[in-house]
Amino acid sequence: MASSAPQRSSLATSSRIHLQSSRVTVDENLLTETYNAEKRKLSQKRKTLTSCQSSICGYLSPWPTYATGQTILHNRKPRTDDYRKKIGGWKRSTLGTTKPRFLEQLENYLRKELLLLDLSTDSSQELRLQPYREIFEFFIEDFKTYKPLLSSIKNAYEMMLAHQREEIRALEPLKAKLVTVNEDCNERILAMRAEERSEISMLKKEKMGLLKLIDKKNEEKISLQSEVTKLRKSLAEEYLRYLTERDARKILIADLNELRYQREDMSLAQSPGVWGEDPVKLALALKMTRQDLARTQMELNTMKANFGDVVPRRDFEMQEKTNKDLQEQLESLRDDYEEVRKEHEILLQLHMTTLKERDQFYTELQEIQGTSTPRPDWIKCEDVVAGGPERWHMLAEGKNSDQLVDVLLEEIGEGLLREKDFFQGLGYQESILPSFLRFDGVVRNKKPTKKDVINLLKDAWKERLTEEQKDKFSDFFFKFLESRFGSDAMDWAYTIFENIKLFRSNELMRQFYEILMEKKSESVYIKQKETVTQLLKELTNVDNQNEGVLTMEQLSTVLKNTFPLKKEDKIQELMEAGGWHINSSNADLLNYRSLFVEDDEGQTMPFVHKLWDQYMSEKDEYLQELKQELGLELREEVTLPKLRESLMIIDPSLDKQTLNSYLNQAFQVPVIEVPEESEENQENVVAQVRTVLERLQIIDIRRKGPREQEPAS
Q: How far is Cα 206 from Cα 2, in angstroms, rounded to an integer?
């Protein structure tokens, strides 16, 4: 709304500039005519003033300016008593001096002309100069000696005034161009703000996704830390168990050695052959054995000292492998943490930027709310609309403010239309008016009810669909009225036209008005009727029992088969308009015939209305896709071959007849299929992109098949 205020001010300024320029032109014409008329008067009055010219005789009168007589149109302030006495003395001294007759006639003439002028108009200053011009011309003509000087002075002033008028005319196109540039800049600003809003919404969504990712990574980090703590605890327990096992093994080895020594000593003591050996040999063997024992004990002590804390290789390798895995996990977690930290910093920056933008937008919102117009209180209309609160609630149900304004205007307009007894004919302008409105004079208001007008429109459509459509729709409509009402056809034509122009909220009246005024082609209405009839026929064919009911699943299947190009969400919208909702099951029954019923005012059910809305939105998308494929601005021109190529790209299923009909409507020329060597002649057929899209918007244009997808690289 903030951007719409400068637009309104610029439009108001441009309108004031155009009005002022038109006033300047009108005032100049008026001044010219007034000047010519006054010039003729001047020639007549000059004859009456010639009698006094003899008193001039080529020199100025010595009559004093303070003599008897009043100065013309001068408002003087009251003077003091001394000044009055002084002036009184002068007047008494000059009392015998009389004003020249020529001067008195000139003053009387000037006073009379100024009183006759209309100073309330914008050109009052120009008109005010005219009497002074005439007096000046009298002086120029009468004072022959000063005539060249006075004429040059007058010409200099006239040339300066003409120069100023030319400069004003030269600046008018620049003002109009300034208004156009202002409008373009406002449109660009609105487009940039829309892009910024979409980008902000995308950044907010991305921010929420990154915050969720950070929370997920933090949870994984906490779980890994708890797992590392458990592994460290289990490693300490294993280490203690291995130490205990090592000490037990040492004690067991010592016990085994002790038992072995005891067993050897017992075997030597019990063996009878030992005593028969040589004692020297036995002593030597004992000595060597003791040395071996001492060396072995020393090696054992050395091994205990060196490898007392050594774990088995198998356990070492297992622990080393576990440690390596944990180290890799730790490195991975560190990398993930670093990435998450960087993303968190970026998100913090985005968050701060978003907060600043939010504060800025909030400030703008407060300013807009402070300067915007408050929302109207529609409850006040309950006591004004005929029918009281109940009828107003029925009219206002499900409508927004814009639609409520239309409803209120229709109610007011209906009352005013009822009060009219006659309409004024619009004339015979063939280039502007349709044939059924070409009449000069007064026509009667037949004052039919809204229901009568709707029934008459339905009868006209029935007759139009049954005959061959050769004439224009407006010509057919007037012939229909002549066949129905005879000599009162023109009265009924104006009456129906005023009604359908007023009741724009009624779907049937709005479509009939758009087709009569050639804003829409009648093929749009006929094709829509054929589509609805075909859909009802398909639903009836599925209803084998002829009970008038179908399941939601059957309705969905028929819709997909009848409209193969509609997407799933469009089918879902039609299902919801038909009565399906989230809690419904596919087995729920639906009275499909009630979807196509019309009320007394010709209004269709929400299902058929949704079909029409989808058709209009699909047409807009189709034309927007065509504009993007052309790759041209709205003011640029497009050739016929270029438009044909673009249509075949976005809709490859177009047949030649339909394609030629689109081209014929776009360029308003007959189009036929020509060989490639003759296509150069069609390069001369051009039109603006804006004009082409507006012309295609009038006719029934729709997609014939899917667009071929480009192969993935």
A: 29
Helices vs. strands in the chain: H and E counts, helices first:
21, 6
Band (671; pLDDT cuts 50, 70, 90) = low
What are the distances in angstroms from CA 646 to CA 622, 630, 676?
A: 12, 6, 17
pLDDT over 60 at 416, yes or no = yes
Question: Between residues 707 and 1, which one has the greater pLDDT?
Answer: 707
pLDDT of residue 337: 92
Measure CA 460 to chain center.
Answer: 38
The residues, any chain, with a CB within 8 Å of residue 46's CB and separated by 6 or more, are 138, 141
CA dist 569 and 575 (Å) reads 10
Which of helix, strand or coil describes residue 593?
helix
* pLDDT confidence tier of residue 66, bands split at 50, 70 and 90: very low
Which residues are paired to 688 by β-bridges? Answer: 637
Determine which of 420-434, 552-566, 690-704 has the lowest per-residue pLDDT on average: 420-434
Please determine, for residue 56, whether its predicted confidence score (pLDDT) is greater than 50. no
Cβ atoms of 700 and 527 within 8 Å: the answer is yes
Q: Which of 27-41, 121-135, 284-298, 384-398 has the highest mean pLDDT?
A: 284-298
Under the phi-then-psi rule, with left for phi > 0, alpha for psi from -120 to 50, and beta for the rest, what region is 604? Answer: beta
Helix axes of 507-516 and 473-485: crossing angle, nearest 10 degrees: 110
Orientation angle between helical segments 473-485 and 489-502, nearest 10 degrees: 120
Q: For residue 692, how many other CB atoms are within 10 A of its CB?
A: 26
Contact 125, 164 (CB under 8 A): no
Q: Is the pLDDT of residue 274 over 70?
A: no
Pairing of strands 637-639, 549-551: unpaired
* DSSP per-residue string spanning 375-419: PP-GGGGGGTSTTHHHHHHHHHTT--HHHHHHHHHHHHHHHHHHH
Rounded distance, CA 7 to CA 182, Å?
A: 8
Going from N- to C-terminal start, the domains of the chain cover 420-519, 521-604, 631-698
Residue type at 462?
K
Say how far apart CA 32 and CA 165 lie, in whole Å.
14
User: Tens of pLDDT along 577-616?
Assistant: 887 765 555 557 888 888 888 877 777 888 888 888 888 8
* Residues 6 or more apart whose Cβ sits within 8 Å of residue 231: 322, 326
pTM listed for this prediction: 0.46
What residues are paired with 686 via a beta bridge? Answer: 639
Helix (H/G/I), strand (E/B), else coil: 423: strand
Q: Quick one: pLDDT at residue 272?
A: 52
Question: How far is it, in rounded angstroms, from Cα 542 to Cα 456?
Answer: 34
